[in-house]
Specification:
Layout (H helix, E strand, L loop, with lengths): L4 H18 L8 H5 L5 E6 L8 E3 L15 E3 L2 H17 L6 H13 L50 H16 L3 E5 L2 H13 L23 H7 L5 E4 L5 H12 L7 E5 L14 E4 L6 H9 L10 E6 L1
Parallel strand pairs: 1-8, 4-6, 4-7, 5-6, 7-8
Antiparallel strand pairs: 2-3
């Protein structure tokens, strides 16, 4: 039996009286109270297309870890690699082979992040920190590989321009270096962090020549930027945090990154490594390089920056 109008009125009266008696002891607050004390946050979703242009890379522009490779390199574009994988999967399924949906999903995501990741652990990262990067083979970047069935055997590595996402990231990082802002790049994939660390070490995501004069010295316009100075002088201008980073090292890296006088301009972080107490409020730019199927992980990562002690607006770019 439904409640009568008199019962509803009596229930509301008693609820009001109870709330007035308890409000002296129970604080009822929501997130709107915090937003009044935090700087504004702007979120942008970037729908990035896969790279479709073939890149001819002559020897002088190849990163110097490929010294000795004397011929020009042709890079098959990213979209073709993606199509080749889908065709290979269809043919494999038609032949009676069992295809794991989850494995196929991870392979597609790797190709979309960068085609180099499709080769898994079959190549090494010469510029990444060997103490943190997972062990890879000793095959150099100029050596032909035994590729998976849907990939070419003569694949060459190390070109940041082969992926739409890395092209966008390169533009964003260049802009933040010019403005003197710090950037945090999140990725849920450890191989993707390895790849980005290699590109940052090879200085292919940020070109030092853009901040130099014709005489090869730092442009006076950027002379007060410690990150640009470290980039031009070949010093370390980035750091990395993932699940394997010790707790003491993690907080030391964050302390240096948050310092305005630190040359650390870029921080690449595993999305799920953002545990309680991680405050990266020194950055004003966030790039979610790949989103997680569970949006709670991405929101938690963003909250590591948009929190108390943040003093500047936060710009968030989500690469989809």
């Amino acid at each position: 039996m439904d409640s009568t109008a008199q019962d509803i009125s009596e229930a509301r009266r008693r609820s009001f009286v109870l709330q007035k008696q308890l409000e002296k002891f129970v604080l009822r607050r929501d997130s709107s109270l915090l937003f009044k004390t935090l700087p504004p946050k702007y979120e942008w979703v970037l729908h990035v297309r896969m790279h479709t242009r073939q890149v001819w890379c002559p020897c002088p522009t190849v990163p110097h870890h490929t010294t000795g490779f004397t011929q020009s390199i042709v890079y098959v574009h990213q979209k073709q690699v993606y199509k080749d994988f889908l065709r290979y999967r269809r043919e494999s399924q038609a032949g009676g082979n069992h295809n794991d949906i989850l494995s196929s999903f991870h392979m597609c995501r790797s190709i979309i992040n960068h085609p180099d990741l499709a080769y898994g652990d079959s190549f090494r990262y010469p510029f990444a920190d060997a103490s943190r990067v997972r062990p890879h083979g000793s095959i150099s970047c100029a050596t032909p590989l035994s590729a998976p069935m849907f990939l070419q055997d003569n694949h060459q590595f190390g070109n940041a321009g082969r992926s739409g996402k890395t092209v966008v990231l390169r533009s964003l990082l260049t802009a933040t270096f010019r403005s003197g802002e710090k950037t945090v790049v999140f990725s849920q994939s450890i191989p993707t962090l390895d790849l980005l660390e290699n590109f940052l070490g090879a200085r292919t995501l940020v070109d030092p020549e853009q901040f130099q004069t014709s005489a090869g010295v730092i442009d006076p316009e950027f002379g007060s930027n410690p990150g640009v100075k470290a980039l031009v002088e070949g010093q370390r201008y980035y750091e990395r945090i993932d699940g394997s980073t010790p707790l003491s090292t993690r907080f030391e890296v964050i302390r240096r990154f948050n310092s305005p006088s630190s040359p650390i301009q870029v921080l690449i972080v595993s999305t799920k490594a953002c545990s309680e107490g991680v405050n990266m409020v020194g950055a004003s730019r966030v790039v979610l390089f790949d989103v997680c199927w569970n949006p709670c992980h991405d929101y938690e990562a963003m909250c590591r920056l948009h929190r108390f002690a943040a003093s500047q607006p936060l710009d968030i770019r989500c690469c989809s």
